[in-house]
Write a structure and sequence with these properties.
The structure is a homodimer. Chain A is mostly helical. The first copy, chain A, has one domain: Arc Repressor Mutant, subunit A, CATH 1.10.10. Helix content of chain A is about 60%, strand content about 10%. Chain A has helices at about 15-35, 40-50, 55-65, 65-80, 100-110, 115-120, 125-140, and strands spanning about 55, 85, 95-100. Chain A has a 3-stranded antiparallel β-sheet. The longest helix of chain A is centred in the first third of the chain and has 21 residues, at about 15-35. The structure holds a DNA duplex.
Chain lengths: ~140, ~140
DNA sequence: TCAAATTAAATTGTATACAATCTAATTTCT
DNA sequence: AGAAATTAGATTGTATACAATTTAATTTGA
């Protein structure tokens, strides 16, 4: 044990988080490719599917993303016809993102994606629950 | 509970992993800014600091990154004078990345980064150990 | 009231990520 | 030996991420 051990990858929590996240996102790809969606587009759609209408600020808070990231993602989803973007009439600064019929139809095609990806995360059920709890504890504290 | 609940953010393990990873990486920024390093550059340097010399393939396996990502990162680190990149004499396909004196000097300046960032991950010690175990279990299975 | 401060998105610039492809070097196999 | 297959990096193209700045709209406060 020398003083440089703190600089080793194995001794960190951030690196496995980063690596795990990337590897699992990669597992989504084949299933999302079929739907012509990227993971970020899929994340954004999940929120719009649930709320039917949401503004960019709310979406950013849910997804931990800012408008610099979301603007092109949402323009892309609009170009594909899954959402429409309209300024709020009561506050022109606010952009509302609403699901379209085509976007609603996509929801049914996406239903089996979670289950298919879940197969590659081989944790016991109680381990998944614990991981979920720990991640949300970290997120809640920052 | 309807059939669309599987498409909610809260019901997934991947999204909190993705969000947690990004939020913690963000916490590195102020400390890495001082060293003129990005998180990815810092990750790469950690491996080079530990092994002194490593080729791109080995580095990619350690970091779960491919040459498409690593090539520009390593060129950047070379431009800053922290590493040098030289082709192996026994196999011209292989590119060796070696720490320089300047890179070695940077190691000491980076020593307190982990501790400073650790403060924002407010987990009990045994929770951090468990999180570490779960993440490596997932990584080991994929 | 109306200038100053704040806010929501968009834009700009830099740095990843990664799939797909390409190139050059090395191995394998007949 | 020499063609075919494999391998290591680099390149190309697309899509994030995010800090910093900008723009336009709204709210605050003297």
């Amino acid at each position: 044990m020398d003083k440089y051990d703190v600089l080793k990858l194995e001794n960190k929590i951030c690196f496995p988080l980063y690596a795990c996240s990337k590897e699992i996102v990669k597992r989504y790809r084949p299933y999302l490719d079929v739907l012509d969606l990227t993971y970020t587009q899929y994340l954004a759609l999940m929120v719009v599917w649930e709320k039917r209408e949401v503004n960019v600020k709310e979406l950013g808070e849910k997804l931990y993303l800012d408008s610099g990231t979301l603007t092109p993602v949402l323009k892309n989803l609009e170009a594909k016809g899954y959402v429409c973007r309209t300024r709020s009439t009561t506050d022109e600064r606010v952009l509302n993102v609403k699901i379209t019929d085509k976007g609603e139809a996509l929801k049914d095609k996406a239903l089996d994606v979670p289950q298919k990806v879940a197969g590659c995360v081989k944790l016991a059920p109680q381990e998944a629950v614990e991981l979920y709890r720990l991640l949300h504890k970290i997120l809640g504290n920052m």
